Structures are given as structure tokens and as C-alpha cells.
Amino acid sequence: MSGICGICEQGRELSTRNLAPMLDALTLPGEQERQEHASRSIALGVARRWDFQRVADLNGVSVAADADLVDFDPLAQALSISTAEAASAPVAELIARLYLQRGVDFLGLLHGGFSLALWDEKTQQLILGIDRIGVKSLYWRREGDRLLFASRVGGIRAIQRDPVDVNPTAILQFLLFSAVPAPISSDQGTEKLRPGTFLTFRSGIVVEHQYWDLEYPESDDQSVSHWSQELREGMRAAVHRHLDGCEQTTTGCYLSGGTDSSSVVAFASERHKPARSFSIAFEESGFSEIEFARTAAAAFHTDHSEKFLTPQDASNALDKIIAYYDEPFANSSAIGSYYCAVLAREKGVGTLLAGDGGDELFGGNERYATDKRFALYYSLPKWLRRGLIEPVVSLLPQDGSKLSLPRKYVRRANIPNPRRILSYGFFLSMPPEEIFEDGFLQQVGTQNWLGVPEEHFRRVRASSELNRILYLDVKMTLADNDLRKVSGTAELAGVNVRYPLLDDRLAELSGRIPVALKLRGFEKRYIFKQAMKDILPRKVLYKKKHGFGVPLAQWLLQEPRMRELVGDLMHDPHTRQRGYFRAGFVERLMNLHKEQPNFYGEIVWYLVALELWHRKHLGQSRETVHAT
Fold this sequence. Notes:
6-stranded antiparallel beta sheet
């Protein structure tokens, strides 16, 4: 583990010793390298794994930075130095210099993934910030006159004075989305920064500011040739930017065989000859896509490595993955991502390029096309819908027969987004009273379960429904979930990750592309395919989406250790006494998992991951909480 941490308490003399528990919580066994700075009112620390994690103190400005920056040109221009000088400068010192020159506006000059803390001695102000997309995380907690912050919530737990109490709202959100969305955290009273924001703490007042957000000022230009060329060159430039400073021998690419990772490999192959690619595969039919990865690897002549995963591999990785994520996290494809990063590390690779982002920027998920079919209902005149169609379909049965389908269609079409597109979720499709204990429902309520996605949906600057959904997925599917999965498992394996398809310049380009070119009719990511049709093999470009999914639902039933783990946990009185689920629900879910493994297995995993999190993280933290 690695990252930044600190304590800000105005007027108090702080020592680097105050940071020791926080840094211990950010460090994996065997890692020792750290940097610290402390003075009156501030203590900053970095648990270091990579060179871009630094502490600096310059002319009354102290900085702790975890900043894997790309494109140093704007920084060099701002400081009137060469790009080479900017790229070679210690990153925390560079940030301090930028702040002295530009004030908080310096954040707009930073490209890449970063989290940072900056203390201005002159103004007695603390600034906490993270990157535009949310590649990095930063948690914070207010305790009286002091503010604690860390890249991981466990760093704050290590020194907080208050008892570590579970946030019931976070548990519910985890069950809905398999991760805890920002600004919520799993710990009551602790929050995390949202992408593109910074926080100021001065004279006891905390204020959150937004310095960047993804917007959708769609162009009126519907030219396919224009936008396909713009997108192709935008992706090429983004991949090349993210390769700057990277050595061919120690840099590689995840390669699932999908269009996104294959596109990254394609453009990386223009710089690195050969580019290095890494894939995982499975024996289980319906999960392995190794043939597509091999097709892409052959097309671009990569130095390709692959590993077939077994149920035993998954079982062996569970303890490590659960221990790493100090908030509840149940994205099961973390197992595949972890072993792909392990494979790369074993081959001498220290940096991987990931393909995440293409679906969410350019309309590649099947549910976008599915939702459009329901949205079409509202293209009919209101008098026709309300005066004829709905009275007629109300006479149809609700028994699951084919005759009931029109009634189901109208019912779902009448659900406003984002509730409609999220309504397929298991915990949103059943009456809450059948799942949760009364006490838990009293804590979380029954009405505002989708408050986080609805807030994203309201605030986005977009005129089309599809772009609102894409924005929601950038914030939640990516920042809250998939990036946590890929970055976290890679760090666990000792690898750094960059996301060229989430380059902010490319994201801004996606906002200008007309929505009709993202989803043309019901063809997903139309303009992306047009951009890449002369580059990617047709077999890869038009394949069905898959990714690094793993057959965990089957393994939970078949692999002896995992099957025993599930049984022991779900029947353990300690699990039942958490007060979340009705006993009857757990038993019913276990039986449904046996009947339909692939459908219910993920939900079983949510419950297992939640209980393992309780035991691994909260049990220990309650024993080690102390004042500092």
C-alpha cells in the first residue's frame, strides 16, 4: 500500500511521530520507505512505493503528493522552465512552486492521477485535492479543531479519537453498487473527496470546491468522418502521453481482448516495439476471451503473456484482496485484475496501461441500448400513451406470460432515470422488508436509496438522457468502482496503473461528440468503431463485451475452501447478529444460488465480502483506536 496522510490542527506543535500509526496503516509488510514533514499546525506524510509519491517544504508551503502526472508542458510554461526540467523535478516540490505562482488555480494544470495535501503557512490554510476523474482517493475527517486525511480510510482509523462506527448508509450503498460511492465512506463521520474537487480547511471551516467536471456541450456537426478522425487521433495522443517517460521493457498493457484494451495496445505499439500485453483466461466456457486477446496480440505483434486462472487461484487471492480494501468492496473481477497485474510484475513490468473508460465515454454498455428502447415510449404523444396504450395494457395479465410483456414494458418506461436504468439491481427489485432487519431499515430509511446517483444525474451539464447516464457511470461505475478495482489490485501486486482512455482531454472530446454518434440506432459505441475500424481486427471490434469477469459464482459452489467459507460465514451467529439481513433472506438466497449460480452468486459474494470486511478491518480497528 502507499499514499499520503496527515493531521492539521491549528496552533498545535505536531511531530512526525504523530504520523506513525497512519503511515503504518498505509504500508504493506516489508515496505519501509516513507517521508514526513511536521511543524506547527501541520504534519504530512507519504508512504512511498513510487517516485511520484513525495513530501516537500518550500518557502512556507508544505506538500504531500501522490501524483503520477502526465503532460508536463503546461507546468513548464507556468514556471518558465523546460518540459524536461518540469518532468524531472520532485513532484511535491513542483506542486509547491506552481501553487506559489498560481494559487489554487494550479490544480487546473495537473493532468494524470493525483491526490495531494498542501499547507500554506502564510494563510494558515490546508488544501486537499484529487484528480479530475478520480484515479486517486483521499479521505478526510473532522474531529474538533483538527482535520485528519489519508489516501485510505484505514489511515484515519489508525489515529481517530472517536470510536470506529459503521456508517449504515455506506453499507446500503455497498449492497446496491458493490462499492461505497463518494462522498460517503464506510466509517461514520469520515468522507472522501469527489473527483475534480478540492477541500480547504482554514480557521476551523471546511469548504469543498469543484475545479473541473465533465460536461457535454454536444456539437451540431454530425459528420461521421470528422468525429471518427478526431476520436482516433484523440485516443492516439492520449495513449502516447501516458507512455511518456515509460520504458518499453518495464511497461505493458492489460489486454482482455475487448475493444478498449485492444485500442490501447494498438496505439502503444506505435511507441513501443514490441508492446507488452498481459491477459488472464479461464477454463469455464462463457468467461474466457483469450482467443480475442490472442487475435489482438498477433495483430500488433506484442510480447504477449497470459495466465489461466483456477478456482484455487481465486481462493488463494481472497485473503489478500479483502485485507487490501479497507472499505467494503465486492467487484468480483478484482481477482482477474489482480492476477493479470501479478503476471506483469513477474515479467518485470512496473507500469500497466488499462483500457477502462471507453464504454462510459462513448456508449459501449448494453444497458444503454436497452434503456433507449424504453425511452422511445416517450417519443409517442402523451394523449396516445395515457389515453389509449396505458388503459389497454392495464387489462393484460401480470403472470409472466408473453401477454404480460407490453404491461411490463410500459411500467418500466414510466420509471424516470436514473431509477429505471438502476432498477435491475437485485436489492432494488425486491421489497426491502423481505431483505433487511427492521432496525437497519430504520437507520437507512426506505426512500432515498438512490440519492447519490440522482444527485449526479441532476448536476451534469448535458441535454441528452444518454449523456446523463454516461456521466453517472463515469462517476460511479468508474471512479467509485472499476478504478478502485484496477488500481488497488495492481498496487497489491506492485504495479502502477495509468488510464489513457480517461485522459481528461479525451473525456472533454467525448462530451462534444453528438450523442447520436455514440449510440446510433441501437448500435453501441458507433463512432468508436468507426474511428478504429481500419486499426483493430474486425473480430475484436465487433465482439460481444466481456472484460475481466471471473466465474466466481460457480467457484463459490465448487471450490472446496470457498464453499466451506461461504457456508461457515453465512451460518455463523456473529454474521447473523450484524443486524443487516433477515435470517430467512439469507437462507433463501443460499438456496437460489444453488439453483441459479450465475444470477445469484454475485449477491452471495456481496454478503461474504461484507462479513469478511467486518472481521478483517473493523474488528482490528476497534482494538487499536487511540488518541494522538
